[in-house]
């Protein structure tokens, strides 16, 4: 009988001892009961460190707020014009500069522009709580890397347009329809391949003159350390393939000569299945180009291809948009 009492005492100590009070320190070892069962209260209202921000000059915008207990909170920042979205999440009693700083980036493309952004905070388990404020983005984040083109400026002769068998529609070209991934303009491809033996629908050759250079500007010519980046827009329509190629100045004359200059391809073809804008990025080592060849890229070729092996008869229209072609060093573009 005494043994049973002893073991019951030990079991009770194990069960309750570790979540009780430490009599030497008068502190609770376990979770605060308020955090588990207490009513939710806002101690300090949600606020921003400023009502406007110039990201290149200011670096970051921070948010503050305080609750009476630790909760899961979500801050959602939405560009009123661009539709860009940045989400910041945390679990804490306090929202502060350490856990809620926005440096102008985006969680979901497109990128933010100079615009008004709506900022909301919510606590998912407290459905009655929410707060909203507005912030004016005076200047968007300046992204690192060597930009070839974001299509904002009219390219003139620096984009050579190719339309195989005139299969691209009038929707193709540099357009401003309010849906660009960055800025106001992007390049759009749309068409139908009606020639069974030819999968190509159309292309553009982007020449380095668009960036004011003889050769495509790169932050480094180490193939393992330089990354190609672009944003590609798709609408879930089937059978669309994007192809990105790089032309090396084989004859060393400083201009692109189709059929003469050697072309390399990054990551094979890009069959497209996503909806909206997506960030594509690959190290240039995937092309097989050497450092010497990277120094003399004389054109970037963007092609629209129809996957005729899976197309019905007659074939369906295919297409995609492309924006913000840039090269970064050490890793992909950080959004």
Helix content: under 10%
- Strand share of the residues? 35-45%
Task: Return the CATH architecture of the largest domain.
Answer: Sandwich
Order of helices and strands: HEEHEEHEEEEEEEEEEEEEEEHEE
Termini separation: 69 Å
CATH class of the largest domain: Mainly Beta
Tags for this entry?
335 residues; mainly beta; Immunoglobulin-like; Jelly Rolls; 7-stranded mixed beta sheet; 6-stranded antiparallel beta sheet; 4 helices; 21 strands; disordered N terminus
Write a structural description.
With 335 residues, the protein is mainly beta. The protein folds into two domains: 35-139, Immunoglobulin-like, CATH 2.60.40.2550; 146-329, Jelly Rolls (Sandwich). The protein has four helices and 21 strands. It has helices spanning 2-17, 33-37, 55-58, 291-294; strands spanning 21-22, 27-28, 42-48, 52-54, 61-79, 85-95, 101-102, 115-122, 130-139, 146-149, 159-162, 173-175, 186-191, 200-206, 226-235, 240-248, 262-265, 270-271, 275-283, 297-306, 318-329. Strands 3, 4, 5, 6, 7, 8 and 9 form a seven-stranded mixed sheet that branches. Strands 10, 12, 13, 15, 19 and 21 form a six-stranded antiparallel sheet that branches. A hairpin with a 7-residue loop joins strand 8 (115-122) and strand 9 (130-139). The longest helix has 16 residues, at 2-17. The protein is elongated, with a radius of gyration of 28 Å. Mean pLDDT is 90; it is low at 1-25.
């Amino acid at each position: 009988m005494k043994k049973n009492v002893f073991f019951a005492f030990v079991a009770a100590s194990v069960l309750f001892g570790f979540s009780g009070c430490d009599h030497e320190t008068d502190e609770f070892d376990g979770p605060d009961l308020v955090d588990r069962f207490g009513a939710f209260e806002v101690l300090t209202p949600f606020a921003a460190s400023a009502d406007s921000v110039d990201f290149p000059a200011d670096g970051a915008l921070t948010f503050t707020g305080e609750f009476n207990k630790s909760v899961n909170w979500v801050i959602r920042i939405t560009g009123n014009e661009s539709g860009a979205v940045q989400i910041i999440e945390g679990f804490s009693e306090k929202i502060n500069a350490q856990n809620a700083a926005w440096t102008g980036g985006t969680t979901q493309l497109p990128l933010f522009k100079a615009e008004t952004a709506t900022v909301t905070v919510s606590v998912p388990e407290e459905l009655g709580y929410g707060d909203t404020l507005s912030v004016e983005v005076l200047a968007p984040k300046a992204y690192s890397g060597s930009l070839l083109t974001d299509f904002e400026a009219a390219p003139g002769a620096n984009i050579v347009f190719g339309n195989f068998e005139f299969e691209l529609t009038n929707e193709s070209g540099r357009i401003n329809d309010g849906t660009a991934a960055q800025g106001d303009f992007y390049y759009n491809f749309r068409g139908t391949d009606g020639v069974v033996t030819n999968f190509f629908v159309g292309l553009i050759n982007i020449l380095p003159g668009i960036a004011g250079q003889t050769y495509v500007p790169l932050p480094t010519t180490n193939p393992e350390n330089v990354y190609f980046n672009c944003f590609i827009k798709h609408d879930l329509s089937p059978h669309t393939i994007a192809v990105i190629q790089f032309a090396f100045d084989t004859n060393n004359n400083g201009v692109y000569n189709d059929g003469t200059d050697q072309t390399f391809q990054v990551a094979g073809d890009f069959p497209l299945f996503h909806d909206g804008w997506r960030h594509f990025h690959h190290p240039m080592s995937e092309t097989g180009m050497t450092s010497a060849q990277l120094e003399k890229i004389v054109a970037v070729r963007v092609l629209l291809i129809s996957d005729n092996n899976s197309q019905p008869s007659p074939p369906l229209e295919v297409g995609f948009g492309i924006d913000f072609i840039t090269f970064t060093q050490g890793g992909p573009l950080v959004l």
